[in-house]
Predict the structure.
Amino acid sequence: MTRIAMLGTGFIGRFYTDSLHGYRSKDKIVSVYSRREESVKKFMADYDVPFGTTNMEEAINRPDVEVVCVSLPNNLHEEAVMLCCKHKKAVMVTKPLGRNAEEGKRMLEAVEKAGIFNGYLEDLVYTPKFLKAHESILSGALGRILWAKSRETHPGPHSEWFWDMEQAGGGCILDLGCHCVEIARTYIGKDIKPIEVMCWADTQVKPIDAEDHAIGLVKYENGAIGQFEVSWTFRGGLDLRDEVMGSEGTIWTNGFLRTGFEMFTTGKGADYVAEKAESNTGWLFPVGDELNELGYNHMFTDMLNAFEQGTQPKETFYDGYVVNAILDAAYRSAKSKLWEPVKLDVWRGKTGFTKDSHLQEYDADHYLVKEEVTHYGAKKLILKNKQTGKISEKIVN
Ligand SMILES: NC(=O)c1ccc[n+]([C@@H]2O[C@H](COP(=O)([O-])OP(=O)(O)OC[C@H]3O[C@@H](n4cnc5c(N)ncnc54)[C@H](O)[C@@H]3O)[C@@H](O)[C@H]2O)c1
């Protein structure tokens, strides 16, 4: 059994606890911190937690606490992490790690200096569909990854602090882009260096200072391109869709809406349908098991197995820091309207990659451009002469 302190009892603190306690799970929340006394009491009662407090340090610094799970607003992640370093407690932090790379780097350096276990809770690289897709990519089924696009859009977050620049640190680029960037980065290869970002962002609908809609391109050193599409203005629920294109194949995944569960109700007895669902009448798209579909179960299995075995989980503070650095470049680009470099003071992947050759040999004199069987049964080859560059067509019957 791993004994955990939960900091934060809101939206994600409860999803995490549902997953950690799970079905006959061996992990247990033994301490909880929340801002308000009544939230502490309610959480303790709902989850049978023996200790609760409105003092963050008190919740962390208890002898029975082995791992701290930070589920607090973005502006409180650093304070919580520093307290974990002070009391030498293993720590897992929800996304985004920091409000920017400066905060992310300070947290990364602090946990490494303190020598404590650190996990970055990016659930969307642990969904069953993601894990399966990634396995296919690692086995070479898609060849060289050329483009990885990830979209997360919904009608906007549920708590007031998200809408405040100071507390949240940004709008949908930071809140949702962090998921999309890590998804694309993992598909492309986490050891491939992200080098520059081009981003469009605007506040199209909401009366806020931050952006509520953005699209960005992240260029990687090997020539691959990541794309993120994020919005707090999308109507119709939570849209999570990814596309990966490689030299040998393609994967499209739909993570949440219209995934094979469709239901109609007049509204009689209607209640919760799924995260960010905008309606509970008419045709609906419920989700069978949100904890599993959103990756929480596989994420905590990886995190706590690594903690028990003294190894590193798949996602660490280092990954959170790299994501922060990419998003910082996106913010700079949205302002400058130019490609902006990703500033990575700490880089532990490979460097010096060049774009792989895209030339496919056909014979001594030609490269192959394309091969296709037409509807009238002819096999057509499009070839390029190596010397002259001339393109020609050859029919093989
Ligand atoms: N899929 C995901 O990974 C995912 C989903 C949602 C949120 N998050 C992240 O989780 C963190 C918390 O988000 P949430 O949706 O649970 O928020 P929330 O508003 O629902 O809950 C925030 C919790 O923090 C506590 N808190 C302590 N001090 C606070 C303060 N000064 N102001 C506001 N709350 C305070 C509140 O009591 C509450 O328990 C954020 O970093 C967010 O980005 C991650």
Notes: The chain has three domains: 3-122, 125-297+305-341, 366-396. Residues 366-396 form one domain. The first strand starts at residue 3 and ends at 7.
